[in-house]
Each structure stands twice: as C-alpha cells, then as structure tokens.
Amino acid sequence: MIASVALGTRPIPLPEVWDAAIGTAQPHVEQVVAARIPRTLLGVVVGAGLGVSGLLIQAVMRNPLAEPGLLGVTMGASASVVTVAAFSGLSLGLGAIGLAMPGALLAVAAVYLLGGRARSSSAVSWVLAGAVVSAVLGAYVQAMVLSRPEVFDSYRHWVVGSLAGAHFETLFTAAPFITAGLACAWSIAPALNQISLGDDLAHSLGVKVVLVRTIALAAAAVLAATATAAVGPIAFVGLVVPHLARALAGTDYRWLILQTVLLGAVLLLGADVAARVVARPQELMVGVVTAFIGAPFLLLAVRRGRITG
Known about the structure:
This protein is mainly alpha-helical. The protein has a single domain (2-302), classed as ABC transporter involved in vitamin B12 uptake, BtuC (Orthogonal Bundle). The protein contains 14 helices and no strands. It has helices at residues 2-6, 14-22, 27-61, 73-88, 96-115, 123-147, 149-159, 168-187, 189-195, 199-204, 209-231, 237-249, 253-277, 286-303. Helix 3 crosses helix 13 (253-277), helix 4 crosses helix 5 and helix 5 crosses helix 6. The longest helix has 35 residues, at 27-61. It is globular.
C-alpha cells in the first residue's frame, strides 16, 4: 500500500507522502497522493474479492483451474454494460457498478440453472454451462460493439481492467458488497472443510451440502461481480491467488480465506504499481500485467503437475 501511494509515473519520496498526509506538502504533491489513495484502497478491496471468489469457485466446482470467469461473470458484466451504453447513451464511469452488476449476477444465475442442482451437478456440467453462457454473451457483446462505434469507444477502456481514475465513490459503492461476500465466505469456512472430505462424510456430520454450496456460489458471484463492475475484468487473480494461499496456509478454509484476502490485495496492488512504473511516463492497464503474471504461473504449475484436473 505504501508503494502504491509513493510510486507511479511520478515517484514521490516517502517524506513528501507523509507531508501530504498531514497537509504540509506542496499542492501538486497533495493532489497526486489524494488521487492515489482511493486507487490503492480500491485495489485492496478488489484484489481480496477476486481472490476469495476464485477460492470459493474452486471449492464448489472441485476444479483447481476454476476462476470467476468460468461462471460467466465477466461476460455477463460486459453484456450489461454494452446494453445500457448502447440504448441509453450513458458513458462508463462511477455508474459502472450499477451497470455491470445486474448482468454479472444474471449470468451466474443462468450458469447455476444450466449446470443443474448442486447435489447432482459435476464439475464438467458447471464448466460446460459457463462456457455456453460466456460464448452466447460474448457473441452478443461483439455484435453490439462492432455495430455501434460509440459503444466501442466507451467500452474499450473498461473491458481491459484498470484501477486508474478510481474515486472514493466507487470504493464506497463496492466495499459493502465485498464485505458482505467475505463475511459470508468466512461463515461457511468450517462447512467447506467438512465438504472437502467428501459429500457422504459431510452429510453424516450434519452439513447441508447443497445449502453450503449454494451460499458459496452466491458469495463468489457477488464478490466477482462487484470487483468486475468496479474496475473491469481482471484475469488470473481469482485463479492464481488460491493456489498461492494453499501453498502457505494448507487446506483449512478458515486460514485459506484470510491468506487469500491478503495475497489478493498484494498481487493486485503489486501489478498496479508495476503497470505504472514499467512504461513511464505512460501507464499500462493492470489487467494486462496480471495476465502476464498469471499465464506463466499457470503454465509452470501445470507442467510441474501441481495443478491437476
């Protein structure tokens, strides 16, 4: 968080950051620090939300390669944004959460219905349902963007995923949803530990498996939808962070959730700092940096056999 406030296209020495915090710095330094603070806090919130969302989805689907995009969250949010931008003429900005959230949640609901009941559905059915919903929505988004240039101009900045231009309004809108999703995930952590031992054993211990999985899926959907709506689609955070957390915290979901919150925030903020520093004086989108980080990690993990289907 300190690096996120101090580093960027214009680095600020730590003493000047402190001066800006207490209101004794130069005006232009105070403006830069004031712009970076909501960006940093939003990165913490979004990173934590994406990481825990990926952890819950992997637990529900029992698929180590599962991540929020597999539920159609990304394409659902994109379709919602494109639809509203096309038919209302609104540009994206602070209202992106309000525009993207309904589509993301509806896409998850469609995947849930197509994938079947939680008790009888398998990982394959969830993956296929997610692929179908994402493909249909992806085709719709492409058709709308190609046929309406004004929609493309507004959509292209959001779809890459970026923390640039973050405001406290966006943070205050996203934080309650992320907090609720994290609290929900924490409340079912003991039940997830028992389900990981097998459905039959969990039933014998009194765990309502279907209910727990439904709650986990709903929490994951809210977390991923809020994060995507706030900053745009950011890939690989929900895939990479749970595996890093397991390497450090083991298999106890109570510790896994805490570790994932921290690692998600660290990964996203680190990627955002790198996005600002690597191409000075220009700035990359954080979604591009996370893709460069996540893709080699995934390839290395698969080749070493640490991730299996």
